[in-house]
Each structure stands twice: as structure tokens, then as C-alpha cells.
């Protein structure tokens, strides 16, 4: 009896939307003291992705770090023509510590693209992006998409200190008006940001919020949004095991149909409606 | 090409590879064709709705993971209306895993899910996350026998009892399940475990304790497979830490008639189809015609140098 040939090599186009592929590292650079940018050479099959989606990375085994589970990482950029996929990450512990050791020419096993990405609704004409720390990585491809759709963009980038605010040039290249704030400057707290954002609503006609990287900023945007009738989306994080919806490890409570329900961040998210996050 | 077929009670599976409950769902259709599998096994469901345990629900430890998912369940009617139809078009037999709080509830539940489209019922009497400190039915032969006996009179479907590595009475529990009418055993569920962050002193799971799975579990569940395969005449399905074809072979040699793959699917979602292909290759390379030729062939002949007995 023949065994069914159920593994289709990734070189052949097949109907499955989630792929496990080995990608060669093109470049891997320090962006500043804390962050690194990893650029992979990726097959076309995984580049049918959208802003807000993520990949699940099998970080390498090194002398110092032996991660076991995969680690979720947002897509920082993808380029179908150049066959490139990149991530921007912060070294946090075992997994990202091991990841940081990857050299150009080495390979990384990735699974994806995963999850549900951002949706720029037709009525959202003047979006405001609010990114904290590495949340910026998640919002970068969204900024690029806003530029492509001709939506005038405003971005507030927040970090602990001014030298940790990243990608402002990238955002400007997408035509965004960029405002940077930092804890060290004393202008990144909710008390300072609220009047700033309410000012932007008046002067720039902001009609949608997109955010990632800080629960505090998300709560602030929920409050401002409720006050001004402004909706939006948020990308959230949760500890994961499978990353594709099988294990229920990554649930969080959300408001749906008038009640609280547990939804899987890896499947129903990681992008959710701003006002449904509890 | 070798004959990969195996039989579990009255069911013939086209190969011995199937998913472990809780590590598989319909989302895997986005990775490969599920019909290549020997069987499909659903996440455990309960009759009523349950929300599961607090987060974090998973953490990793050296070469393994802990989970305290609990059994979040949307209840039996939701399952019958929404989940069951998703599997209607697959050839692979569908095994549904159920859990309940009492033997009576198990029986009533078994009756409710004995519907067309369901090929067998996996009886989860071993979840360490659902009852206090892992006091599952499968800890004791009496409680195990009780559950299976009640279920046996409630359904004609094959009953697969999933055993626990947390009991000291592995053989007694296995025999009690067989005597009460179980058609197969699964060895085994996760082992109750704990992890603490040394820096903060905090338990790393929201539920404090959870089940250990992955490669670190294998020697224990492989031992249980061996013990049970010798002690009962119903088929034993091995489960625990399987990620390579060598793992599969070890379980078959220990006496398993089939195996389940759990955590390895999280590390590589295409593990199961790979194992099917590699098992076929290994059998060919060894000149074996069928999986049967491996089952229960463990070599325990005493070739070791006998150590001197301590007399004084
Ligand atoms: C959808 C998604 C997208 C993400 N995108 C990015 C990104 O673009 N750039 C970036 O720097 N980080 C991102 N993160 C966070 C990143 O996954 C964690 O920083 C990373 O898993 C930490 O692993 P570690 O082993 O280095 O750290 P450790 O602290 O040693 O991790 C220990 C365990 O906790 C888990 N864990 C720790 N922090 C998080 C977290 N914030 N979210 C989920 N699990 C966590 C790890 O997976 C691991 O199992 C994202 C998280 C999610 C869920
Ligand atoms: C996240 C997770 C969820 C699980 N859920 C269930 C479950 O609902 N029912 C069950 O019988 N076993 C459950 N298990 C146990 C597995 O089915 C399996 O017995 C165990 O993980 C050992 O196999 P492995 O080492 O291959 O993972 C779960 C395991 C994991 C890791
Ligand atoms: S990580 Fe497994 S369901 Fe989300």
C-alpha cells in the first residue's frame, strides 16, 4: 500500500497557506544598543503576507541558549520582488539571545505567515500610528501600506530614551509626519500624550488609531477613541506554543457580541479591534 | 513500499501515526493534507462550557514544555454542530476525546457523541490540569474500571482509555481498563510538573502546576508502553516525546500498535507527514514488509555481564 505523498516540497506551489521553510540569512545588524534587524532570503510562498501578521521562528541552539518552543515575531518588512522578509527584534532572553547569534549565510527555520493582520477600513482616511519600543516593528509594514493607499499618515514613536526611538526615517520615507517622545524627555506619559493626540484630532483630522507595544498606550487610545468616536486596531502579544491555533495557549479576553470571550492571539489576532480588547 | 497499516481493535488505520489530543485541530489543514494520517484525534471536550486555566498556560523547560491549558470547551452541542462537520470529508477515522467529572457523566457523554462520523472515543481520564493537583481517574484502578464499565454499556463505539504517567499503579490501571471493556490504551498523557523563575521566585505557569510533554517525557511513557503491552491483550498506543522516526520505532518495538504525536507538531507542524514517509523508508531499508514486523520485538535477552552480587 503506497504511503500518501502528503508533504509537498515548498518549491512546488500548493494550496496550503501556512508554510515551514528554511531561509538563508542575508544580513543581520544591530540597529541600536537593544534592537537587531534580521533580513532573510525567503521563498515566494511565504511572502503572500500582510502587515500585522507574524512568523514563528525556530531559534537556533547555541552554547549559551537552548530554546525549545518557537518564538513569535512580527513581520517588519516583506518584499516579493527581492524575495526578502525581515524582522526587527529586541534581545529579551533565551530565544532572542540565540537568534542574535545567527550569521549571514546561515539558515533559520520559519513557519508562517500566521494570524490576522491590520485592516485599513475605507472610512479610515487619516490614521495615527502610536508605537512603543519594538511595537514599531509591527507597525512599519502598516505605514508602508498606508503610503501605498495614499492615506496621509501621522506617527508617534515612543521609547525609553531618544536614542532608542527607531525607524523614524523609515516612517518619514512613507510620507509620515513623525513625532518622537521618550521617557527621558518626560513627554511620553499619558498625561502629555493625551492633549497631543487630541490636538492632532483637531488639526489633522485623525480618524483612526493603530497601536502596538504598550498596554498603557492602548488603554489611553481606548479612552480618547471613546471620547471622540474614533476606532482603530491594536496588535497584542501573548505567550504561544503552536502559533497556528491548535493549543489554546495564547488566549486573552475580548469583548464580542456584548460579552467577554477568550480568543486566540495567534489565530483571531494578533490584530484586534481597539475597543474590543479587555 | 511497506504495508503501514495497523489495527486498533476493530479499526484499521492506514498507518500508525496520529495526533495527540490537544495538539491538533482543523487549523492543521492549512499545513498539509490531513488524510495522510492514520487517524484524527480531537482536543478533549467536556459536555458543558469551560473556560480553561489562567495564562501563562505554557512555558518551556530544558528540551520540553509544561502546559496548564485546562480543558477550555464550548460544550457538546457546539462540538456536534460546528466541529464534527469539519471532518466529514476525511477518510481518516475521527477519534473524539472526552472528559467528565463522574463515571455517570462520562457514560451519558459517550452516548451523546456516539453519532455517525465518530469512529472511536478517547477517554481522557488522565488530564493533570482538570482536577485538583492532577487527581485524575487514571490514578487508581478502581476509578478507571468504573468509568470504562459505565461507558461500555452506553456506547458501541471503541473506547480508548488514555492513561496517566502520574500513577504508581500503571499495570493495575491498564488491566482495570481492559477488564472493564476498553478497546485500546494510550500511554500516556502528560506528567504533573512545575517550573519556577529563579530570578523572580514566581511560578512560571498561571495555574502553578502543569503537564510535562516533549522529548523529556519519552523514557517514562516508553516504559509505560512496554509495561502495558505486556500486561494486556488490547492494543496499546504510544504517546510522549515523539519527534523522530527512531522514537516511533522505539515505541513500536516496545509493543505499541500505533503512536500519537503531540508537542513535536508545535515545533514543526509537518512532523506527522514526515514521520509517515520516514517510517516507510526505514521499513524498506530494513527489508521489513509491514509495521507489524516491528511491534513488540524488544530485545530484552540478558547479554549484559552479570554484576557480582554483594554478599557482605
Ligand atoms: C505576535 C507577536 C509578535 C511579536 N513581534 C515581535 C517583534 O517584532 N519584535 C520583538 O522584539 N518581539 C516581538 N514579540 C515578542 C517576542 O516574541 C518575545 O520577546 C520573545 O518570544 C521572547 O523570547 P525570549 O526567549 O528571548 O525571552 P524569554 O523572556 O526568555 O522568554 C521566555 C518565554 O516567554 C515567552 N515570551 C516572553 N515574552 C513574550 C512576549 N512579549 N510575547 C509572547 N511570548 C513571550 C517566550 O516565547 C518564551 O516561551 C512578539 C510577540 C508576539 C506574540
Ligand atoms: C498544549 C497541550 C494540550 C493538551 N491537551 C490535551 C487534552 O485536551 N487531552 C488529552 O488527553 N491530552 C492533552 N495533552 C497531552 C497530549 O495529548 C500528550 O499526551 C502529551 O503531550 C505527551 O505527548 P508529546 O510529548 O508528544 O506532546 C495536551 C498536551 C499539550 C502539550
Ligand atoms: S499559540 Fe497555540 S493556539 Fe495560539
Automatic annotation (TrEMBL), chain A:
An example Gene Ontology molecular-function term: oxidoreductase activity
FAD-binding FR-type domain location: 18-120
Q: Which GO terms describe its biological process?
A: pyrimidine nucleotide biosynthetic process
Name the keywords, alphabetized.
Answer: 2Fe-2S, Electron transport, FAD, Flavoprotein, Iron, Iron-sulfur, Metal-binding, Transport
Q: InterPro entries, from UniProt?
A: Cbr1-like_FAD-bd_dom, Cyt_c3_hydrogenase_gsu, Dihydroorotate_DH_ele_sf, Dihydroorotate_DH_Fe-S-bd, FAD-bd_FR_type, FNR_nucleotide-bd, PyrK_electron_transfer, Riboflavin_synthase-like_b-brl
Q: In which residues is FAD bound?
A: 71-74, 95-96
Q: Which Pfam families match?
A: DHODB_Fe-S_bind, FAD_binding_6
Relay the cofactor remark from the entry: Binds 1 FAD per subunit.
- Which parts of the sequence bind [2Fe-2S] cluster? 242, 247, 250, 266
CDD domains xref list: DHOD_e_trans
What cofactor does its activity depend on? Answer: FAD; [2Fe-2S] cluster
| Entry annotated with the keyword Flavoprotein | yes
Superkingdom is Bacteria
The record's listing under PROSITE patterns reads: FAD_FR
Task: Give the protein family.
Answer: Belongs to the PyrK family.
List the protein's name: Dihydroorotate dehydrogenase electron transfer subunit
Tell me what organism the protein belongs to. Mesorhizobium zhangyense
Automatic annotation (TrEMBL), chain B:
Per the record, the GO terms for biological process are: 'de novo' pyrimidine nucleobase biosynthetic process; 'de novo' UMP biosynthetic process
Main enzyme class? oxidoreductase
Which residues act catalytically here? Answer: 127 (nucleophile)
Enzyme Commission no: 1.3.-.-
- Cellular localisation: Cytoplasm
Cofactor detail note: Binds 1 FMN per subunit.
The pathway it acts in is: Pyrimidine metabolism; UMP biosynthesis via de novo pathway
Give the keywords, sorted: Cytoplasm, Flavoprotein, FMN, Oxidoreductase, Pyrimidine biosynthesis
Q: Name the InterPro entries on file.
A: Aldolase_TIM, DHO_dehydrogenase, DHOD_1B, Dihydroorotate_DH_1, Dihydroorotate_DH_1_2, Dihydroorotate_DH_cat, Dihydroorotate_DH_CS, Dihydroorotate_DH_I
Q: What is its main location?
A: cytoplasm
Give all residue intervals belonging to the Dihydroorotate dehydrogenase catalytic domain.
4-283
Q: Where does FMN bind?
A: 21, 43-44, 124, 162, 214, 240-241, 262-263
Q: Which GO terms describe its cellular component?
A: cytoplasm
Record field: catalytic activity: (S)-dihydroorotate + A = orotate + AH2
Membrane-spanning residues where? none
Protein's UniProt keywords contain tRNA processing: no
Q: Does the keyword Cytoplasm apply?
A: yes
HAMAP family in the record, alphabetically? Answer: DHO_dh_type1
Which family, according to UniProt?
Belongs to the dihydroorotate dehydrogenase family. Type 1 subfamily.
Its biological function? Catalyzes the conversion of dihydroorotate to orotate.
Protein name, entry field: Dihydroorotate dehydrogenase
Q: Which organism is it from?
A: Mesorhizobium zhangyense
